[in-house]
Amino acid sequence: MQADYKAVFSAPYDPANLGGDFINSIHEWHVSYGLEYSLGRHWSVGSTFGGGFYLERLTDLLEQKQNSFTGYSSQIQLFVHYFFGK
Fold it and tell me: So where are the chain's domains?
């Protein structure tokens, strides 16, 4: 089981120098569950399944306001690992 949170903050792109004290932000929450099976000493295979939620706040400098966008995400991942060494 894995839980993950990410946040990114940035100043809005402002080539016309419109000003304002706004910050763009993206917040992501994600939860997943995975299984991994060993196939000898060096190989393993597995999969993860998960889902999440995100919130974006983006600045519209012409209107001097922030717009919010929300959504859901899902993930299915299959993988093969090879371990080097003894």
Answer: 2-82
Nearest 5°: the CA angle 66, 75, 82 is 130
Measure the CA–CA gap between 72 and 30, rounded to whole angstroms.
9
pLDDT at 80: 96
Q: Please state, in angstroms and rounded to a whole number, the distance separating the CA atoms of residues 36 and 75.
A: 16
The torsion region of residue 40 among left (phi > 0), alpha (psi -120 to 50) and beta comes to left
Instruction: Tell me the DSSP string of 39-75.
Output: ETTTEEEEEEEEEEEEEEEEEETTTTEEEEEEEEEEE
Comparing CA positions, the residue from 24, 44, 27 lying closest to residue 36 is: 44
Q: What is the pLDDT of residues 73-83, one digit of tens each?
A: 998 999 999 99
Which residues are within 8 A (CB) of 40 and not within 5 positions of it... i.e. 6 or more apart?
A: none
